[in-house]
Amino acid sequence: MAPKTTRKPEPAIPEDVTGKELDREVRAQLRTLSSENAAGVAGHLVMAGRLLDSDLDAALAHAETAVRRAGRVAAAREALGVVAYRQGDWARALGEFRTVRRLSGSSHLLPLMVDCERALGRPERALDLAASPEARTLALA
To answer: Where are the alpha helices (DSSP H) in the chain?
Structure first.
């Protein structure tokens, strides 16, 4: 039997982070969790967003922690997908965006999914996604 891998320690969340910085929709998704877990996940999501433009490795650590604690919450998966996308990890980003789509039923990440397919060298899949009925429902912007 292979030895179990040790869990990475959770990155620290500064005291000024309350979780109330999140959109109402994201906070609503966290209601499915215990209050203690929801507060921790909220903090990690806030930190992933804060660090997205300055420290992608730290943002990744927070996003991965949020997913470990709340893997069935679409906002956590979206945060991890966005960090992976910013890092150029197209396959991981695409996988997370697909999971968000399954969990939420929303196609709002379709443009990023199309770009991931293109970056992975699959232009025909990118075009198929871009021409899908779901893509026609998105706002032009």
So the answer is: 24-29, 35-51, 56-69, 74-87, 90-104, 110-119, 123-130, 133-136
